[in-house]
Amino acid sequence: MDYKVRTRVKQIVVDEAVPVGTDVTVLGLARTVRRSKEVAFIMVNDGSCMQDVQGVIDNPDNYPELEKILTGAAVRMKGTLVESQGKGQKFEIAVQSLDLIGEADATYPLQKKRHSFEFLREIAHLRPRTNTFGAVNRMRSRLAYAIHKYYQERGFFYIHTPIITASDCEGAGELFRVTTLDLDNIPRVDGKINWDEDFFASEAFLTVSGQLEGELLATALGDIYTFGPTFRAENSNTARHASEFWMIEPEMAWAELDDDMDLAEDFLKYLFRYALEECGDDMAFFGKWIDKELIGTLESVVASDFERITYTKAIELLEKSGQKFEYPVQWGVDLQTEHERYLTEKTFKKPVIVYDYPLDIKAFYMRVNDDWKTVRAMDVLVPRVGEIIGGSQREERLDVLQEHMKRKGITDYEPYSWYFDIRRWGSMPHAGFGLGFDRVVMYITGMANIRDVLPFPRVPRWAKF
RNA sequence: UCCCGCGUAGCUCAGUCGGUAGAGCAGCUGACUGUUAAUCAGCGGGCCGCUGGUUCGAGUCCAGCCGCGGGAGCCA
To answer: Which domain holds residue A21?
Structure first.
């Protein structure tokens, strides 16, 4: 049996690259079968695109296996491509043969009806076969490609930072531990765990960020980016947090905060434009079924400039807004979700970049401003999703870095020796940020829950499939 | 981790004042139709999350537990 002869549904209905009259073989899953005495219709989807292709069977009585082709069955359909007599599709296939390859009986959980996203999460092994999750997974692939395209075309090098890390000083949340020790029989010395006996002869964790290593590579290669999985063991139970997620972290040598913000804005707009221009049929689906305002929102964001305001200005605006917030606004406290949403959804109605945050609420590696009150940090906030990018200009001055760390109570410099070394020799200004890939996919598709943009999400109490 | 809500048929849900379990979809049977998640008629389908309590009687009220969802914090 030759499976290579098949024609993808996308070539027929999206690209319209198959001439009428061509004999085609379509391999895919039956979505619905409508049968009567004189004629039967079968919708087949092969995952290559959103749309199904319709097969028309003029003499259903000659196809006894048709009775066994229920929703979800894998079928091979051969026939001639013709212009459709009916409404709703341009082309259809006049079926000459139809074979049942893999049966799906009535217990198949995906029926031709709307299922709740909550139910579909429980059958994550099957949900890619639905319209919504087929579209989401196609979008993830297309956007991942767009990310590489964007950076490669601009001279950034794709680098691979370690997923296993020995330093728990990455400073971005709780870490998952990696060990080969026998947990029922942990070796101890003086009552403490003897990490010398563990696989790496030290404690080891899953990375929460590739940034620190990214900085090292940037000082050598110029502009770099990472794109890989990231792990946070936070007990976060929200629609926008996952324990395992994908992050893009560009890092530019010879760059300051303005350059960082320029890159962030240009990069996001590029991805939005790419989705609108290159993923039309899937985006049309999201615009119709997930969020009616989606396309318009993305188009207006691409056309407009992101608002850029200092943290201090943001606090002023929130104080003057007259809005009652659950968490009172005050210079020095971090912006709460309600504050971020007010800025993006009410004040500006578009993405907002807030920069120059108070030194006390940001990480030690961010470049200190001369007043020693603020650091060169920036967050990109978007309506609905919230923080989508967090970044900063890095502290390149060794003495200032160490003074900053001292003020933050970090006194053990030993784990940071290599981080200090690139400031000790040939230090230069550099900046970068982290973009949550899954949050971008949420924003672009309109999907409201991060568990529905990851094929197999990992969140507290859930690591199935 | 905290606050709130929910858990009933394969799925989506209703279930009044505490009185012996209901609809739509899917499936099955049949009819009909160039149909579009087709339509029409009929049929089958239940550990009401678990444990305990109140009561003559609990899907319904109470407590605990488990699970899920929404919001918050942490953050991308």
So the answer is: 9-112
Strand B closer than 7 A to residue A36 Cβ: yes
Give residues 49-108 of chain A lying near strand B (Cβ < 7 A): 54, 56, 70-71, 84-89, 92, 94, 106-107
In a domain, A4, yes or no: no
- Which of A58, A80, A112 terminates a domain? The answer is A112
How far, in Å, is the CA of A33 from the C1' of nucleotide B33? 14
The H or E element containing residue A444 is helix A437-445
> Same structural domain for residues A339 and A308?
yes
- Orientation angle between helical segments A398-407 and A417-424, nearest 10 degrees: 150
**How many domains is chain A partitioned into structurally?**
2
Nucleotides of strand B lying closer than 7 angstroms to a protein CB: 1-2, 10-13, 24-28, 32-38, 67-76
ipTM summary value: 0.86
Q: What is the pLDDT of residues A99-115, one digit of tens each?
A: 888 888 878 888 887 78
Which CATH number do you get for residue A52?
2.40.50.140
Helix extents (H) in A249-364 = 257-278, 280-285, 294-303, 311-320, 337-341
Q: Is the Cβ atom of A233 within 7 Å of strand B at any atom?
A: no
Q: Is the pTM of this model over 0.90?
A: yes
Query: What is the rounded distance in angstroms from the CA atom of residue A250 to the CA atom of residue A161?
Result: 12
Same structural domain, A307 and A343: yes
